[in-house]
Design a protein that fits this description.
The chain is an alpha/beta fold and 358 residues long. The protein is 61% helix and 10% strand. It has a five-stranded parallel beta sheet with strand order 2-3-4-1-5. It has a two-stranded parallel sheet with strand order 6-7.
Length: 358
């Protein structure tokens, strides 16, 4: 049975000497675990040295930004520590630059990031990745330990539902448990109904994010995100159901765009011109959706031709039949669907077919 995460972190921290000689650290896996140990390492360094600390979000990091940050220190601190958080692409580092880093560098990476061998060799590299069948056990240990400290308990049904809602994400689980404790008040036991009333299923949110990535992200990112959803325990048919709804909404708004010759340049313009016309239509799949959600569907629909959307919808139906016939190959069938979807969209865009032309 895997060790409870907090105990594992404590064990690792105890192995780090009080005066840390290493300057390069790389932690990969669950965001909560990686960031927790990163904070402990920073605390250990700051206890023995005067360091200025800079945190750089993943979306802002480039080789130039890193170089600039590394060679700028504070007026009162000769040492500097740079923490690059949740970075999945490491193209800003190479074998030569890693040798020349004059200060502390700490990287936290999401699970599944491709880490070059030179980075594993030159850094204190810790991989927190778990096997899929271990993750639920870790979450249950985490839950029990968290609630024991608060002298509270959770019913087995509520526990199972919370795991099903959240998937493996210890950060979200911690926040959800804290929310449930606040809601619980003087009661001792968290019931299933408490979870239903208070917690939003983050797994479903992830599937909607996949639908958005299929339109806007490279195929490599789409496949990586699909793998993440499946490892979180999202059922393949749930993924298909959400994607089918996405395509039907795209088809419906695409037909309206073509008939009314609408543009979706900005939300303000959409509210003034397009939305009043759309509301007059006999909507089916878009009915009841907020105006901003319809606007986002319209923006995505402009990247497709109606022919492409119909082809993708047909492929969704074929994939559903294939998964129901051979459930063991569900992952393969979904990957083939992703490749089909992305290749069709790429083909449409490469021919210069925009919504306004069709």
């Amino acid at each position: 049975m895997p060790i409870y995460p907090k105990e594992r972190i404590t064990a690792i921290i105890k192995k780090i000497p009080s005066e840390i000689k290493d300057r390069l650290f790389c932690f990969m896996g669950d965001t909560y675990l990686c960031e927790e140990i990163a904070r402990q390492v920073i605390k250990r360094i700051a206890n023995t040295k005067k360091v200025s600390i800079e945190t750089i979000p993943a979306e802002e990091i480039t080789a130039e930004r890193l170089a600039e940050s590394l060679y700028q220190t504070g007026l009162f601190n000769k040492e500097k520590l740079i923490w690059i958080k949740n970075v999945s692409k490491l193209d800003f580092l190479d074998q030569k630059s890693i040798k020349k880093i004059p200060h502390y560098l700490l990287l936290t990476l999401p699970e599944g990031t491709k880490v070059p061998s030179f980075l594993k060799d030159k850094t204190v590299f810790i991989d927190f990745t778990l096997k899929p069948n271990e993750k639920e056990t870790w979450m249950i240990h985490f839950m029990q330990s968290f609630l024991q400290r608060a002298k509270k308990r959770i019913t087995p049904a509520a526990q199972r539902l919370l795991v099903d809602y959240i998937g493996f994400n210890l950060g979200i689980l911690k926040n959800s448990l804290q929310m449930l404790l606040n809601y619980l008040g003087e009661r001792e036991i968290i019931e299933e109904q408490d979870v239903i009333e208070l917690i939003v299923p983050t797994k479903e949110e992830g599937v909607f994010a996949l639908a958005e990535k299929l339109t806007n992200a490279p195929v490599e990112d789409v496949l990586f995100f699909l793998k993440h959803l499946l490892e979180q325990g999202v059922h393949p048919l749930v993924i298909l159901s959400v994607l089918a709804k996405e395509v039907r909404c795209l088809m419906e708004i695409k037909e309206i765009i073509q008939q009314k010759k609408l543009l979706f340049a900005s939300y303000n313009q959409f509210i003034k011109t397009a939305y009043p016309l759309i509301k007059k239509e006999n909507l089916v799949h878009l009915k009841g959706l907020p105006s901003y959600v319809i606007f986002l569907f319209g923006q995505r629909a402009q990247k497709y031709s109606l022919k492409t959307l119909k082809a993708i919808h047909q492929q969704l139906l074929l994939t559903e039949i294939a998964i129901k016939s051979t459930p063991k190959n569900a992952c393969y069938h979904l990957e083939m669907l992703m490749l089909f979807w992305c290749s069709f969209l790429s083909s449409t865009q490469s021919k210069g077919l925009s919504a306004s032309q069709r």
